[in-house]
Design goal:
By secondary structure, the protein is of the alpha/beta class. It has a domain at 149-261: Trna Endonuclease, Chain: A, domain 1 (3-Layer(aba) Sandwich). The protein is built from 6 helices and 5 strands, in the order ααααβββαβαβ. It has helices at 4-21, 23-32, 40-143, 149-164, 209-226, 242-251, and strands spanning 169-175, 185-194, 197-203, 232-236, 254-256. The protein has a 5-stranded mixed beta sheet with strand order 1-2-3-4-5, with helices on both faces. Strand 4, helix 6 and strand 5 form a beta-alpha-beta unit. Helix 5 runs parallel beside helix 6. The protein starts with a helix and ends in a 9-residue tail after the last strand.
Length: 265
């Protein structure tokens, strides 16, 4: 007699072939196990439901993903716009601060230049006054023998050369006919030649009426000797006698109290 184990083993061996060969037996087994296993329609229906659920889950996940993506993009766009606005505002502040800094620097430089220019002008004016004072004192010294007339003349000539970028030439001619002084004598004159112009100058510590006439005669002597007409006759002296000044005006001679006062050469 077969045991239960042996019987189950025999059924497992023979059942597949019997089910394939005997449709009635197959239907019997299917009907017998229907409550345990779903049939094809139920399986397909359940599979369709699972697919529908998966599709809905996928669509829902895609929708949530799209919504989150759109929300993130919106927040990112807002943050980007806000950052750009703040950056632009900061740039405007930086530009404004930079402009203010440049303006303040330019104003400081301008004020410094103006202050320096005023200082230079005042310094130049003080030095010019000091030099004029020194020349006036020198003129007194030369007049009273404390300073040579030659040294005083050289000082005035130096001022002319420095102020107008010219060269003052000392000309010495001999008047052998006595045309100037009524007897043969050495004639000394200062001349400036610039851009074709001839300027004849008298540089002295003091000039009287006779000195003015003497200068005019020396100038005319030079013109005849060198066959050239002077463009300007100039007398520079800090001490010009009023009567000498009237003579100079009559003779067309320019007079100046200091070398720095000479009109542009």
């Amino acid at each position: 007699m077969q045991t239960n184990e042996e019987l189950k083993a025999q059924i497992q061996r023979e059942l597949p072939g019997l089910l394939r060969a005997d449709p009635a037996l197959r239907d019997f087994v299917l009907d017998l196990t229907r409550n345990i296993y779903a049939d094809r329609a139920q399986t397909e229906s359940r599979f369709d439901r699972v697919l529908d659920e998966l599709r809905r889950d996928r669509e829902d996940a895609a929708r949530r993903w799209a919504e989150e993506k759109a929300e993130n993009e919106r927040r990112w766009a807002e943050e980007k716009a806000e950052n750009e606005r703040k950056w632009a505002e900061n740039e405007r502040r930086w530009d404004a601060n930079g402009r203010r800094w440049d303006e303040e620097q330019a104003e400081s430089k301008r004020l410094w230049r103006e202050s320096n220019a005023r200082f230079e002008r005042v310094h130049e004016e003080i030095m010019a006054q000091a030099k004029k004072h020194d020349r006036a004192v020198g003129a007194l010294g030369a007049r009273w023998g404390l300073m040579s007339e030659r040294a005083f003349r050289d000082g005035l000539a130096g001022i002319l050369e420095e102020s107008f970028n010219v060269e003052v030439l000392r000309i010495e001619d001999y008047d052998d006919t006595g045309e100037v002084f009524g007897r043969p004598e050495q004639i000394e004159l200062d001349v400036i030649i610039k851009n074709g112009l001839l300027l004849i100058c008298e540089l002295k510590s003091s000039v009287g009426k006779a000195d003015m006439y003497s200068f005019e005669r020396k100038a005319r002597f030079y013109e005849r000797r060198h066959d050239r007409k002077a463009d300007r006759l100039i007398v520079i002296s800090p001490m010009i006698d009023p009567r000498a000044a009237k003579v100079a005006e009559t003779l067309g001679i320019e007079t100046y109290g200091d070398s720095t006062e000479v009109e542009h050469i």
